[in-house]
Amino acid sequence: MPALILPDRNIVQVDGEDAGHFLQNLITANLDAIKSGEVQPTALLTPQGKILFDFLISKSIESGFCCDIRADQTADFIRRLTLYKLRAAVTFQTVTETPVIAGWDGNAPHDALRDLRFPEEAHVWRLYGSGLVLDAEQSAWDAIRVAHGVAESGSDFALSDVFPHDVLMDKNGGVDFRKGCYVGQEVVSRMQHRGTARRRVATVTAETELPEPSEQGAELNIRAGDKPVGSLGTMSGKSALAIVRTDRVADALAQDIPLTVEGIPVTLTLPGWAGLSFKSGDPNTPDA
User: Fold this and answer.
1) Which residues pair with 239 in a beta bridge?
2) Does residue 172 register a pLDDT over 80?
3) What is the reported pTM?
4) Where do the structural domains in the chain lie, given as residue ranges?
5) What are the phi and psi torsion angles at 146 (to 5°)?
């Protein structure tokens, strides 16, 4: 049962009489659909529909909601929530003493929460505070995210730069298209109904180790001939995550144009659980 503490994550507790109503009107997920024993991906968007904060949310055991978010975004997240608070009976508190633990395989602890970003057969779970034996390395966690196409801000995309569709939130339950309004909802709903999403998370695989960036912060581009189709994010040996232009990848595949990273041939695969295909060039077309 591999498990590790994720030191780059924090917990923000949202509580109070109006906590549910307050969050339901702000974030992309439907709080009414969150079940006990599960942690749900979600986001707070800009009015233009781009991801301002990505995080995981679950119902707290006693009351309120637990927001599992990047530690370096915690203060900004609380400031943003406070801007929307007005007179709502809701409180925000950073729970610094509770470690965020990720684990997979084997039998999960009885109080673990299934991470809904991953397919059920991956057995990936989240736990907030525990005396577990932690025997996994960060590299192992990176590898399982890469294998299943689960992107996170910071390592795979910049905040305020992508739409929820770009990182498959429309496929993993991170966006509910039937709930009421929330910040950025109009843009995201339009993308859904018109099928205009053109960027998606893909797993990149090479036959050799993928190269490291030449300098810190530099991007490694995926190219179809001389045309860029995306850039690498989290890397794990011969594989990596990337957000790619699916229309450009489909065109390259149709024309047998090689896909490369720094001259290294690569293949791109959309996560099986998302039910998408490069075949038609339409990123919203289910795989046959």
Assistant:
1) 205, 236
2) yes
3) 0.93
4) 3-167, 198-274
5) -60, -45
